[in-house]
Amino acid sequence: MNFTDNYIEMCINNVNIQNLCRHNKGDWFWNGEKPYLYCKSGLGSSNPHDYKWLPTLEDLFGIADWGHYSINKNIGDHGYYYGKENLFGEIKYPGETFSSLKEMVLAVVMEINYNKSWNKKEWEEM
């Protein structure tokens, strides 16, 4: 699994996301040095609770409250989403604001669920 340095930073300093972790077999964690795959069979670290959760894209799509928003379509270099009230917002794609799809999806989840945005250093209220 490939995790960018920025994505790792976005996850480990994110209380909202860390509180959702259930320490399931197959979850990825940051052990302070490298990503680590958690296996309940005893492989790897014996205490993943000391580590920070790195959600996969599948995890992120499961976390998002899509009842209020849904992906509409891609236009050029930007993605657009809309709410039930037909309010449009713009999300920058990788290469502009984010360097990976995981980073962008995490930012969308944080905006939808928690009304927070990433300022390239930390999460802040919008």
Blueprint (SSEs and pairs):
Layout: H1 5-12, H2 15-18, E1 28-30, E2 35-37, E3 52-53, H3 57-63, E4 69-75, E5 78-83, E6 88-92, H4 101-114, E7 116-118, E8 123-125
Antiparallel strand pairs: 1-2, 1-3, 4-5, 5-6, 7-8
Mean pLDDT, nearest integer? 75
- The radius of gyration is 15 Å
- N- and C-termini, Cα separation: 31 Å
Number of strands: 8
List the helices and strands in order. Answer: HHEEEHEEEHEE
Low-pLDDT residue intervals, each spanning 5 or more residues? 69-89
Strand content: 25-35%
Give the helix level as a range of percent. Answer: 25-40%
Give the structure's gist in a few sentences.
The chain has 126 residues and is an alpha+beta fold. It has helices at residues 5-12, 15-18, 57-63, 101-114, and strands at residues 28-30, 35-37, 52-53, 69-75, 78-83, 88-92, 116-118, 123-125. The model is unreliable at 69-89 (pLDDT under 50).
Give a verbal description of the structure.
The structure is a single chain. This protein is an alpha+beta fold and 126 residues long. It has one domain. It is built from four helices and eight strands, in the order ααβββαβββαββ. The chain has a three-stranded antiparallel sheet, with helices on one face. β5 (78-83) and β6 form a beta hairpin. The radius of gyration is 15 Å and the shape is globular. The chain starts with a helix and ends with a strand.
Which key phrases capture this entry?
126 residues; alpha+beta; 3-stranded antiparallel beta sheet; 4 helices
